[in-house]
Amino acid sequence: MFRQIAFVGVAATMVSGAALAEDDVKLGLMLPYTGTYAALGEAITNGIELAIEENGGKLGGRSVNLMRLDSEAKPGKAPQNMNRLVNGEGADVIIGPVHSGVAMGMIKIARQEGAITIIPNAGLNAATRQFCAPNIFRTSFSAWQTAYPMGKMAYDRGYRKIATIAWNYSFGKESLEAFEEGFKAAGGEIVKQFLTPFPKVEFQAYLTEIASLKPDAVFAFYAGGGAVKFVKDYDAAGIKNAIPLLGSGFMTDGTLDAQGPAAEGVMTTLHYAASLDNPKNKSFQKAYQDTYGKAADIYAVQGYDAGQMLVQALDAVKGNTSDKDALIKALAAVKIDSPRGPWHFSKAHNPVQNMYLREVKNGHNVVVQVAAEAVDDPATGCVMAQ
Prior knowledge:
Rossmann fold; single chain; 2 domains
């Protein structure tokens, strides 16, 4: 069974749920439940719950307590929030965050305290590179994984000269660097890189310059409201037919309804698409729709897989969370049958997974092909990967 406890903030008291039972597995969820990223936090939480419910609502034969703490997507609060869950509430496993800035604060405490931490979204490369640790796992992606494969895909489609553009912040820059690495390795040339102020969404001057450069295509990274505005502005500029738009998958994930016809034909790479034709994805989408009354997105998948890995690992250690070394070993050994396709952990604890080339057709991200199979992040600087 589930027990639900929610904390609004670090100083908050329990506001809902039952009292903790001594034999519960305590999962500390440090995710955004308010603000811009609240929908992502809820989707991840739903996915975790669904995976555990499919196992009878238990982990290793023990009841589960989900302790929700709103990260508010505020990096400055991350160390204090992490300490609250680890040392104050005694969480056996921490799951979070969404925001890469929050992840940096969480990782610092996780490394200091040895707290078992599962990252269900934040894609900063450093989490499974120079800041990797035996107790830190990620069920999502690295920035490199989602952009590097598009380099070869672009070259294979005949593009030889490409301009790149993204917000001037860490994930945007890491995405452009990864694409550029892949495109240059294939033989392509980057004619110009544009970095736009975050989180501003004034793109007209950049689009005018892109039109004058006449590259074969453009690769972009934007997400959320920025992706909606950029894709609409790109379409309105009248250059999409002459200069096709490519991107990291987050540019058209969760944004298509708002982008409307402007997104048609945009091609992206990502580790998931709702249209993936495999039995696990079909059963997952149905179960999620039946349970939550809406379609599952990539964030729900990443949460679901975090739940699946806990099911496997806790069953393997017969519910024993007191032996951290044994639990870490069991977590590292999981093999996940995911809606995105099968995956396993690299030595750096990042998923080794397929990346898919998708094209927006009739308002949906349709899988064109596997862009790259079993993509493993380089894990540069990770001592575990040596």
